[in-house]
Amino acid sequence: METNPIKLTEWSEGSGCGCKIAPAILDQILSSSGSFSQIDPNLLVGNSQKDDAAVYQVSEDLAVINTVDFFTPIVDDPFDFGRISAANAISDIYAMGGKPIFANAILSWPVEKISPELAAKVLEGAKHICKQAGIELAGGHSIAAKDPIFGLSVNGVIHPRKIKTNKGAKVGDHIFLTKPLGIGVLATALKRQKIQDKNYLNLLDTSLKLNSIGSILGNHEEVHAMTDVTGFGLLGHLIEIAEGSGLSAEIEIEKLPLIEGIQDYINQFIFPDNTYRNWNAFNTKTKGVVGMDLVKLCDPQTSGGLLIAVAPENQAWFESTMKSEKQVFWEIGKFVPKKEHVVAVV
Ligand SMILES: Nc1ncnc2c1ncn2[C@@H]1O[C@H](COP(=O)(O)OP(=O)(O)OP(=O)(O)O)[C@@H](O)[C@H]1O
Ligand SMILES: [Mg+2]
């Protein structure tokens, strides 16, 4: 790990997607701001189902996707912060099944207190990831403010009939996840200066992996619904799909993949405060969670994996597609008819 005299993570309380406003408060803000009427028929996806990005149809076979994502530093190294933030922002285009085309940067920097050279490193990291995703960082907007913040607004394209949202899952669909959980735990270990170098590398490996498989899955109607797992944790984003699709979900706790080494940190009670915030938001919709399992279910991910619903009869096709794309995945549960609880942990 590169050492910097300035520790970016000391500049703010939350970090990465963990600094997202709590789901209940976001709902309160959005609902009391007046309706998002969305009367333009070309706005195919707005914010009514809590999807990853907005989608606007421009012609019979073309729709544009736009998303914006930014947060406070999740790591101390500015290049890594830029890379993680960019990978996280682009992910929302992949999660809709789309192909990213270009991005603009959003930068807030306390220029009197943290050298502008470090801000340049953040941008350098973002460009590195944009290049990997095959897109240009076209421009951006920068302000001088108290907190360092960085993110991207990303544009993408998709065929209007290929969009993947939170509402297409069907009873019996198998649920797959493409990255192990625990990014929030590792980010907290880093912030508390308890992380070991090898675990920092695990944090980078996991968060920097692009969710580009989403663009490929967008072409296949066998994939019924898709989102990415970020600040609300696996549980929160699973609830978004289940509720969006009018279903419930069953999760097999033993099948949840965890990033190597995170159990040791959990045993030392090293995990983000926002894990409990997520749990408080979702526990009444959930049954069967025992003891510390809530940490795995509610850990806020930054640049987490894709959560995918696939019909059981297409399981073989899905597995061979993922293998031929060298994409790892874990099957973690299934969708069932709507019940009293949105998610049951079995
Ligand atoms: N300030 C806002 N104004 C209008 N809608 C908002 C605002 N903030 C969030 N939303 C909407 O709330 C929903 C959930 O937003 P959220 O940021 O959690 O999604 P996301 O972009 O998928 O998150 P992530 O990038 O962490 O995956 C989305 O439909 C989003 O458009
Ligand atoms: Mg998302």
Number of domains: 2
Contiguous uncertain segments of 5+ residues: none
Name the hetero compounds present: adenosine-5'-triphosphate, magnesium ion
Helix content: 25-40%
Q: How much strand?
A: 15-25%
Domain PurM-like C-terminal: 170-344
Site (Important for catalytic activity): 20
Function: Synthesizes selenophosphate from selenide and ATP.
Binding site for Mg(2+): 52, 92, 228
Structure in words:
The protein is an alpha+beta fold. It folds into 2 domains: 8-162, PurM-like, N-terminal domain (60s Ribosomal Protein L30, Chain: A); 174-345, PurM-like C-terminal domain (Phosphoribosyl-aminoimidazole Synthetase, Chain A, domain 2), CATH 3.90.650. Helix content is 34%, strand content 24%. It is built from 11 helices and 13 strands. It has helices at 23-32, 78-95, 116-133, 183-191, 197-208, 213-217, 233-245, 262-267, 274-282, 293-298, 315-324; strands at residues 43-45, 54-59, 62-71, 99-109, 136-144, 149-158, 174-177, 223-228, 247-251, 286-287, 306-310, 330-337, 343-345. The protein has a 7-stranded mixed beta sheet. Strands 1-2-3-6-4-5 form a 6-stranded mixed beta sheet, covered by helices on one side. α7 (233-245) packs parallel to α9. The longest helix has 18 residues, at 78-95. The radius of gyration is 19 Å and the shape is globular. The mean pLDDT is 94. The site of adenosine-5'-triphosphate has 13 residues, from α1 and β3.
Task: Kindly summarize this structure in a few lines.
The protein is α+β, with helices and mostly antiparallel strands.
